[in-house]
Every structure is written in structure tokens, then in C-alpha cells.
């Protein structure tokens, strides 16, 4: 992915201004603050992508084309995770797009969260787990289970100094300092089972 | 008017709140009720038997965290400082903690089943925190503060009995200084768990309320422990030194 700024790049492609506004609102509701490019027609979207611009996400409404949207877009190569909103084509585009129908607010929000936050393939933005390296996850696991630095070092066959460095990095990456806080994080993210923690 | 510290004895008490609404709980801690009409800070303080200069230093340092007249504050009597710290404890345990607990409980009740386990984790985390916080406050209330008041009383009476000297030699205040836990760090963890790691859209309204309360409590605690560490502890050391000198030890 080529990002000029550190912000997530999102294209919102919809013909109607109000529709684009609504999409922007939902994005902000789920807590993302991306750089948004608004596009009002399919031809603009095509030429945008042809210029080699690589967004992180595309959200497209089926009003973007007056003709059958599916005929139009199957020929386009989308460089990133793309969502098509509309009432048709859910089956047809399967595999290439996340296609959603808008039913109610709760569903929309959930769909959007899934779209933005859930990992799908190789080129996804970092999720919570990949925030930490595998080694850091190993260390976090042991910290959350209440092991001392010395015990962790022995268990993972690394020096106590390395343990401390890992712990420092984990705290920095997660913004969590205490063992109790790290334990909550580890359980929340399925890194350890709640049953493993002996209170 | 000094823009950074816009409070003097002549400032209207009503204006104190208009200038910085975060001072509302501080006024409460001093036992000041509303309805002060156009009375000034000094008038309200006199009516309520409050040391106006202490009151001003406290609200100034709360208003502007950069301002912290450590030495000035140490000059106030320990009982004045402790009275304030003690009513702050009461504010935490009787007001803030129940309020936050209530928000988390409501959150837990109203969240969809798929997120319930996450909120329950946060709830347990906070419950554990409450136990620690109350223990912390109790230790100060039951051991530390009474010891300090005893020192100050014996100085004003100029009576230094053996048991007091013996207490001082046990270095209780050094002990307290070293083991005085930081009660803010867990709150900061809780905040980060919510801000950075909780899936969005779990009752946004309640999460916002909860976060605001956590930020407030964290700030308040920072201010509070700063007074304990930087004013009270050095003050007590002075008192102890004075007693040891005057009793000829
Ligand atoms: Fe305290
Ligand atoms: Fe304290």
C-alpha cells in the first residue's frame, strides 16, 4: 500500500451528496478518521483508479452508475477491499466485493465495522493482534498469566533483559501499563483464556 | 486580572465557577454550598470557616496544573491540609466510585450478548481497582493522617512523650513515601482499554460518559497525590525534625 499520509485512505463513491454524507457519518460513528475522497460518478472512479491511486478501502453505492452496476464494475480492477452497497447482486459479486443491503442502523454499523476492522487477506490494515509481534504475544501471554520476568525468561529461553524490552514495547504499543490491564487485553483478544488466569 | 490564575480573595465565588466549572467538586470538598449571591471568595470562606489562602492555592493549582507552590502550601497547618485531603477521599469513595460503577453496570446490562464478556472484564477490572483504591484511602485515613495530626498536636502543646519519639524512629513517613501507590495508572489502563481496544459502538453514549468520568477522576487523583507527595510528606519530615530537636533527641 502506498500511503502518502498515515491516515487511512477511503474512497466514497456515490452519486448523491446526501448519500455520501451518510456514509461519512457512519465511518465516523465507528470511530475511524480517514482521509476521504468523494467521487460522484463511475467514470470518475475509473479514471481515479487508472491514475494509479491506491486507497485502502472503497465504499461504493449502486447509484453510481445509471446502467446496471454489476455489468459496469466487473470489468474494473479494484486495488483494495471494496464494499458495494445496494439491494441487488449480493450473490453475483461474492468473492470480489463485500456486498451489503441496507436494512437497519445496527446492521449497517456492524457491516462497516467488519469491513474496516476484520482481517480478510494479506493486505489488510493492522488488527489488534498484528499490532504485536509474535514474540511479543508470547511474552504478553506469560505476563498476563502472572509470571515474573525471570520465569518468563526461563520459559521462553531469552534473557531477562530481552523480556524487559519486550514488555516495554508491549506497553508502548497497547498503552497499557499494569499487569491487570494487560490481562484484560489478553483475554479480550483471545490471547489467553479467562480460565487460565488464577486469581 | 491574571489570566493564568484569575483568582483572588476579592473574586466573586460565583465567578470562580464561571471561570472553571471543574472547580465545582473542589468547592464541595470545602463544604461550600451554592447560593453565595454576590459574595466574594473571602466572604464565603470566612462564613464557612475556611482558610481563604489555602482555598485559593488549592483552586489555583487545580485550575492550572503548572502552578504548584509547594513551599507555600507546606506552610499551612497539617490539619488544614489533611482536612482537605480527607474530604477528597470521601468524594472519591462516596461519590465518584459509585457513579462510575453505576455507568459500567448500566453498560454491562445494555450491551449485546456478543460484547458482554468484554464489558464484564472491564467491570471486574474496575471492581478490583475499587478494592485497591479503598484500601489505599483507608491506610491514609487510619494510619498516616492520625500520625501526622498527633505530631502537630504535640508540637503545639510542646509535649513530646517517649512513645511519640519511638513512633518517629520507626520512620512511618519514609515508609509511606516509598510505598505510596500510584492510583492513576490503572485508570489510565482502563481508559486505554476502552479507547483503543474495545470494539466501537458499544453504547457510545455510555462509553463517552464513562471516559469523561475516568479522565476526571484520574486528573483529580493526580492532583491529590501530588499534594500528598510534595506537600504533606516534606511537611511531616519538618515536623518530625522539629520534634526530635525540641525534645533533645
Ligand atoms: Fe489520599
Ligand atoms: Fe494517596
Question: What's the short version?
Answer:
The complex is a heterodimer of chains A (199) and B (249). In chain A, 27% of the residues are buried.
Label the overall shape of chain B. globular
Query: What separation lies between the terminal Cα atoms of chain A?
Result: 44 Å
> How many beta-strand segments of chain A?
5
In spatial order, strands of the major sheet of chain A run: 2-1-3-4-5
* Main sheet record of chain A: 5 strands, parallel
The average pLDDT score of chain A comes to 79
| Straight-line N-to-C gap of chain B | 50 Å
Average of per-residue pLDDT values of chain B: 92
CATH class bucket of the largest domain in chain A:
Alpha Beta
Q: Pick out the low-confidence regions of chain B.
A: none
* Pattern of helices and strands of chain B: HHHHHHHHHHH
Q: What would you note in describing this structure?
A:
The complex is a heterodimer of chains A (199) and B (249). Chain A has helices at residues 17-29, 42-50, 69-73, 105-117, 128-131, 134-144, 149-156, 160-174, 179-188; strands at residues 9-13, 35-39, 57-61, 81-85, 98-100. Chain A is α/β, with parallel strands linked by helices and 199 residues long. Chain A folds into 2 domains: 9-117, Response regulator (Rossmann fold, 3-Layer(aba) Sandwich); 134-197, Winged helix-like DNA-binding domain superfamily/Winged helix DNA-binding domain (Arc Repressor Mutant, subunit A), CATH 1.10.10.10. Chain A is elongated, with a radius of gyration of 22 Å. Chain B is an all-alpha fold and 249 residues long. Chain B has 2 domains: 13-67, no CATH class; 75-246. Chain B is 75% helix and 0% strand. Chain B is built from 11 helices and no strands. In chain B, helix 6 runs antiparallel to helix 11, helix 7 (113-157) runs antiparallel to helix 10 (185-197) and helix 10 (185-197) packs antiparallel against helix 11 (204-246). Chain B is globular, with a radius of gyration of 21 Å. Chain A binds chain B through residues 29-31, 109-110, 113, 117, 128, 174-178, 180-181, 184-185, 187-189, 194, and chain B through 118, 121-122, 125, 128-129, 185-186, 188-190, 192-193, 196-201, 204. One fe (ii) ion (FE2) binds next to helix 6, helix 7 and helix 11 of chain B.
Amino acid at each position: 500500500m502506498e500511503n502518502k499520509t498515515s491516515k487511512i485512505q477511503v474512497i466514497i463513491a456515490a452519486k448523491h451528496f446526501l448519500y455520501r454524507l451518510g456514509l461519512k457519518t457512519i465511518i465516523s460513528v465507528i470511530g475511524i478518521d480517514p482521509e476521504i475522497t468523494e467521487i460522484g460518478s463511475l467514470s470518475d472512479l475509473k479514471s481515479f483508479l487508472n491514475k494509479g491511486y491506491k486507497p485502502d478501502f472503497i465504499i461504493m453505492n449502486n447509484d453510481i452508475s445509471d446502467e446496471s452496476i454489476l455489468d459496469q464494475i466487473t470489468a474494473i480492477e479494484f486495488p483494495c477491499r471494496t464494499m458495494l452497497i445496494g439491494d441487488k447482486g449480493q450473490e453475483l459479486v461474492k468473492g470480489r466485493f463485500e456486498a451489503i443491503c441496507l436494512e437497519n442502523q445496527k446492521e449497517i454499523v456492524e457491516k462497516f465495522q467488519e469491513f474496516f476492522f476484520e482481517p480478510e487477506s494479506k493486505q489488510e490494515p493492522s488488527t489488534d493482534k498484528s499490532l504485536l509481534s509474535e514474540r511479543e504475544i508470547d511474552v504478553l501471554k506469560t505476563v498476563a498469566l502472572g509470571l515474573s520476568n525471570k520465569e518468563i525468561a526461563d520459559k521462553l529461553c531469552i534473557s531477562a533483559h530481552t523480556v524487559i524490552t519486550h514488555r516495554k514495547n508491549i506497553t508502548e504499543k497497547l498503552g497499557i501499563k499494569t499487569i491487570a490491564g494487560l490481562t484484560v487485553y489478553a483475554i479480550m483478544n483471545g490471547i489467553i483464556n479467562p480460565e487460565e488466569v488464577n486469581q | 486580572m491574571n489570566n493564568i490564575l484569575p483568582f483572588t480573595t476579592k473574586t466573586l465565588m460565583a465567578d470562580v465557577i464561571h471561570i472553571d466549572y471543574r472547580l465545582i467538586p473542589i468547592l464541595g470538598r470545602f463544604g461550600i454550598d451554592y447560593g453565595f449571591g454576590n459574595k466574594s471568595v473571602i466572604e464565603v470562606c470566612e462564613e464557612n470557616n475556611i482558610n481563604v489562602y489555602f482555598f485559593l492555592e488549592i483552586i489555583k493549582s487545580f485550575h492550572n496544573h503548572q502552578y504548584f507552590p509547594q513551599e507555600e502550601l507546606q506552610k499551612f497547618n497539617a490539619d488544614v491540609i489533611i482536612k482537605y485531603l480527607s474530604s477528597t477521599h470521601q468524594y472519591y469513595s462516596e461519590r465518584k466510585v459509585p457513579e462510575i460503577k453505576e455507568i459500567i453496570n448500566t453498560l454491562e446490562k445494555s450491551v449485546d450478548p456478543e460484547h458482554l464478556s468484554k464489558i464484564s472484564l472491564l467491570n471486574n477490572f474496575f471492581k478490583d481497582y475499587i478494592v485497591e483504591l479503598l484500601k489505599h484511602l483507608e491506610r491514609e485515613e487510619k494510619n498516616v493522617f492520625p500520625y501526622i495530626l498527633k505530631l502537630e498536636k504535640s508540637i503545639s502543646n510542646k509535649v513530646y512523650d517517649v512513645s511519640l519519639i519511638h513512633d518517629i524512629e520507626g520512620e512511618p513517613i519514609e515508609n509511606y513515601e516509598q510505598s505510596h501507590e500510584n492510583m492513576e495508572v490503572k485508570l489510565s489502563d482502563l481508559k486505554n482499554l476502552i479507547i483503543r481496544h474495545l470494539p466501537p459502538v458499544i453504547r457510545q453514549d455510555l462509553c463517552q460518559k464513562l471516559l469523561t468520568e475516568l479522565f476526571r477522576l484520574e486528573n483529580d487523583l493526580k492532583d491529590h497525590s501530588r499534594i500528598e507527595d510534595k506537600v504533606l510528606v516534606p511537611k511531616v519530615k519538618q515536623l518530625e525534625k522539629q520534634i526530635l530537636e525540641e525534645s533533645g533527641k
